[in-house]
Amino acid sequence: MSSAHPGARRADGPPAPGATALKGRTGLDRVLHAAGHSLRGLRDAWRGEAAFRQELVLAAIALPLAVWLGRGWVETALLLGSLVLVLIVELLNSAIEATVDRVSMDLHELSRRAKDMGSAAVLLALLLCGGVWGTALWQRFAG
């Protein structure tokens, strides 16, 4: 069984079979191909992850509210940044879950820990977002 991962090089130099197509690309060509992979990841998350869809819809609704609610560029950036952070962490959690499931669907303590830690990261991002938004709302209406 080979321990090589996509993009790994053999000892003699050429890319291993199945190596990522971006390894030979440079400049704008590499950026454009990487952007395509990123868009495919967003599309896959939208199609396959209900939590990502829900968070993205809420973020789209909250975006104009953040512009209205923020009393300056720093508050607006914190409101928007906390929304984007939730989406980023959700994408990473989904990637962890997909990787663990790809390796094995068997129940294993390390698989459980990886998935639970990813879920905990999403929870912390949501709590941070809720705290930022709650504070901004408090300042706007009670302060």
Automatic annotation (TrEMBL):
Reactions the enzyme catalyzes: a 1,2-diacyl-sn-glycerol + ATP = a 1,2-diacyl-sn-glycero-3-phosphate + ADP + H(+)
Cofactor note: Mn(2+), Zn(2+), Cd(2+) and Co(2+) support activity to lesser extents.
Broad class of where this protein is predominantly found: membrane
Binding site for substrate: 30, 43-46, 51-55, 90, 119, 133-138
Superkingdom of source: Bacteria
Pfam families per UniProt: DAGK_prokar
UniProt binding sites for a divalent metal cation: E49, E97
Record-level GO BP terms: phosphatidic acid biosynthetic process
Segments passing through the bilayer: 50-70, 76-96, 117-138
Binding site for ATP: R30, E49, E97, K115, D116
Cofactor(s) named in the record: Mg(2+)
Enzyme class: transferase
Coiled-coil regions listed: none
Region (Disordered), start-end ranges: 1-23
Annotated localization: Cell inner membrane
Function according to Swiss-Prot or TrEMBL: Catalyzes the ATP-dependent phosphorylation of sn-l,2-diacylglycerol (DAG) to phosphatidic acid. Involved in the recycling of diacylglycerol produced as a by-product during membrane-derived oligosaccharide (MDO) biosynthesis.
Family: Belongs to the bacterial diacylglycerol kinase family.
Name assigned to this protein: Diacylglycerol kinase
